[in-house]
Design brief:
With 695 residues, the chain is α+β, with helices and mostly antiparallel strands. The protein has 2 domains: 122 residues, PLAT/LH2 domain (Lipoxygenase-1); 506 residues, Lipoxygenase-1, domain 5 (Up-down Bundle). The chain has 22 helices and 18 strands. The strands form 5 sheets. Strands 2, 3, 4, 6 and 9 form a 5-stranded antiparallel beta sheet that branches. The protein has a 5-stranded antiparallel beta sheet with strand order 12-13-16-17-18. The longest helix has 42 residues. The radius of gyration is 30 Å and the shape is elongated. The structure holds fe (ii) ion. Fe (ii) ion binds next to α8 and α18.
């Protein structure tokens, strides 16, 4: 037995050995190589110190994980070769695993994209643009946009489902206050997922601006100073004109009627004013009260289209805040304005409360200087509340967050709408989280400094949400409903109208590239889930808002997405960027007023005005806050620029180029026009409009 066994064993061993050699030779002959280039972001902390493992997955198979180390310097582009025994077919996705060493617990990595050239010489791009810190397997799809019914590979379908399951665990709805739009539920070590956080650069810059502002106010004795201003002139000593030429102009002219009227068109809230043909019943201005040129009267001027109304009824009946035990005052005024023959818009009558009658006089430009100025000051304070709480907080910040959270919970990275909208979501959740903690919540800036702060704030915002309509969020509809077309010197509309048109054209091109007919829109269950969540969590399922519950046609989708991008970029810029210009000089935008409104005329004096305006501490807080919130950081991304290349196909990339060219032309026109203006209107210059609600 023994003698026969030895040759048999030897024969078997040789057979195995020769088979392995043949297989090895065969493999070497058929081995195929994939050239892989990993692009890492160039921001602070973007580079990974630890190695990364990468795997390719195609329709015909997958590679093994291949390890890659990044050099410590010059590491923005790293190339490697992945060898496989056969072609993997069409590449579907990649998997990345970042090796974790416990001696380096907080090593971050921000890969931008991975580009793979196959043995067949096909190029595949995998957009990433995400922070990776853990050692989990992270899957990223190839860049070609796919709707859910375009998925043909099992690997793609599984990855799509896993991505959305993970996202829905990370991004959850939370009701911050009943009656307000839902927001992102913060939790975990950083409160928000890494992708949602400010970049380290932005954190540092905002922190620096905040700290230097605080130190300045503290060194000047403004911080927490409850002292009254003895005169308006004394406020000027603490005002720093170099920070804004517009703010300096406002300081010089804030008492003049032309600037008061101008701000309803081109100030921080251009969405309240409307042209009227009849007076509201509760604003009984009679012909005999006002003199017009050429023996005209109020009704004739209304017929000619020269009379405008600003009605602050959203603020009516809400008790003003109590600060340090002192009752504050906030009115709900009605303001009548006249377009003069020189095209300047000037106020001609002010009623500070909604219900007319005794103790609620109609103030006129012919009243005493201080009566008229005090009435305008109450309007400007109401303007502050209406602007900050409704135009700015609700209609841009809070709604933008709804659009973002719904996007992240419903649309995978490979979906065309994700690729279209993700640039307009940057930093929105983080800035809103900070706003809830520092600006609007308990013990926040507004609760300490604003008549509309504290519990008052939420009452006003809830009421405003119930009045917010889809039409009011769409610029052309809003302008038509307010009869504000062809109003001279209305630069918000001039620039905003063009921006709306360019955004609409861009969105239309993208949507029609991916959705050929109504059926494709209606069958896209992910798309329908996105709008359903917005309707439910943003507009609290109120059909009267006019917000669609679902999309039926590509046209429905184009209009809504245009509104989303316009709101997150242009509209936010229009109401955000001028905060210091028009609010830095406190008397022009007092956040609170400390005395009741005048109930009769001929009593107001300079002393009345100073006692009514906010104290020194509130003035200092306003200077610091408006400066911080009006100042872009260096990682600002202007509208139309897409440094993150989520679209990799030729057609959408060409549409992006066309869009950018249109915006650059508009920017040049605006800059040329502004050279001839007394107050340059810069807020909707595309180069100064940020892609997202980021501040
Ligand atoms: Fe903002």
């Amino acid at each position: 037995m023994t003698t026969t066994c030895i040759p048999v064993k030897s024969h078997l061993w040789n057979s195995v050995k020769y088979a392995l050699i043949r297989k090895k030779n065969l493999s070497e002959r058929t081995m195929v190589n994939y050239r892989v280039t990993i692009y890492t972001g160039n921001g602070l902390l973007a580079n990974s110190i630890t190695p990364v493992h990468i795997k390719l997955v195609g329709t015909e198979g997958e590679s093994v994980f291949t390890c890659v180390w990044f050099p410590l310097f010059s590491c923005w582009e790293t190339t490697l070769t992945i060898s496989c025994t056969k072609s993997l077919g069409k590449l579907i996705l990649i998997e990345l695993v970042k090796k974790k060493y416990y001696i380096i617990p907080n090593d971050f990595w921000f890969p931008n994209k991975v580009v793979v050239t196959s043995p067949e010489n096909d190029e595949y791009t995998f957009p990433i643009y995400s922070w990776i810190r853990d050692s989990d397997i992270h899957t990223f799809r190839e860049g070609k946009a796919l709707r859910i019914f375009d998925e043909t590979s099992p690997a793609g379908s599984v990855a799509r489902k896993q991505e959305m399951d993970l996202r829905r665990r990370k991004y959850n709805w939370k009701s911050y206050q009943v009656g307000l739009p839902f927001c992102m539920k913060e939790e975990g070590e950083y409160k928000l997922p890494l992708k949602a956080l400010f970049s380290p650069t932005k954190f540092i810059e905002l922190g620096f601006t905040f700290v230097t502002g605080f130190v300045r106010r503290w060194s000047e004795g403004l911080y927490d100073n409850r002292g009254n201003w003895k005169s308006i002139g004394a406020i000027a000593n603490f005002f720093h004109p170099k920070q804004s030429s517009v703010a300096e102009l406002v300081k010089q002219h804030w008492q003049e009627d032309w600037l008061f009227g101008y701000q309803f068109l081109n100030g921080t809230n251009p969405n309240l004013i409307k042209r009227i043909k009849t007076l509201p019943d509760n604003f009984p201005v009679t012909d005999d009260l006002i003199c017009f040129p050429d023996n005209s009267n109020l009704h004739q001027e209304m017929e000619k289209g020269n009379i405008y109304l600003c009605d602050f009824k959203n603020l009516d009946g809400v008790p003003a805040n109590i600060i340090d035990g002192d009752q504050q005052y906030m009115m709900a005024p009605l303001v009548l304005l006249h377009k003069r023959p020189d095209n300047n818009l000037v106020p001609i009558a002010i009623q500070l409360k909604q219900i007319p009658g005794e103790g609620n006089p109609i103030f006129l430009p012919t009243d005493s200087h201080h009566d008229w100025l005090l009435a305008k000051t109450f309007v400007r304070s109401a303007y502050f509340a209406e602007h900050q709480l409704i135009a700015h907080l609700l209609r841009t910040h809070l709604l933008a967050e709804v659009f973002v959270v719904s996007l992240l919970r419903n649309l995978p990275m490979v979906h065309p709408l994700y690729k279209l909208l993700i640039p307009h979501t940057r930093y929105t959740m983080q800035i809103n989280l900070l706003a809830r903690e520092r600006l609007i919540g308990p013990n926040s800036v507004l609760s300490k400094d604003a008549a509309a702060g504290g519990p008052t704030l939420f009452k006003i915002v809830k009421r405003a949400l119930s009045d917010t309509t889809y039409r009011s969020l769409c610029l052309p509809d809003s302008i038509a409903d307010r009869d504000m077309k062809d109003v001279p010197n209305f630069y918000y509309l001039q620039d905003g109208g063009q921006l709306w048109g360019f955004i609409h054209g861009f969105v239309e091109g993208i949507i029609l590239h991916y959705y050929k007919d109504d059926d494709e829109v209606q069958q896209d269950t992910e798309l329908q889930a996105w709008i359903a969540d917005i309707f439910k969590y943003g507009f609290l399922s109120k059909p009267e808002s006019g917000i669609p519950e679902r999309f039926n046609t590509p046209g429905d989708l184009i209009k809504f997405v245009t509104m989303v991008i316009f709101t997150c970029s242009a509209q936010h810029a229009a109401v955000n960027s001028g905060q210091y210009d028009y609010g830095g000089w406190m008397p022009n935008a007092p956040s609170t007023l400390r005395q009741p409104p005048p109930s009769e005329k001929w009593k107001a004096t300079h002393v009345t005005l100073c006692e009514t305006l906010p104290n020194k501490g509130v003035t200092g807080d306003g200077l610091g806050t408006t400066f911080l919130l009006s100042r872009p950081t260096t990682d600002f991304i202007p509208l139309g620029q897409f440094p993150e290349e989520h679209f990799t196909e030729e057609s959408p990339r060409q549409l992006q180029d066309v869009f950018l060219n249109e915006l650059q032309c508009l920017s040049s026109k605006i800059q040329t026009r502004n050279k001839g203006l007394r107050i340059p209107y810069t807020y909707l210059d595309p180069n100064k409009v940020e892609n997202s609600v980021a501040i």
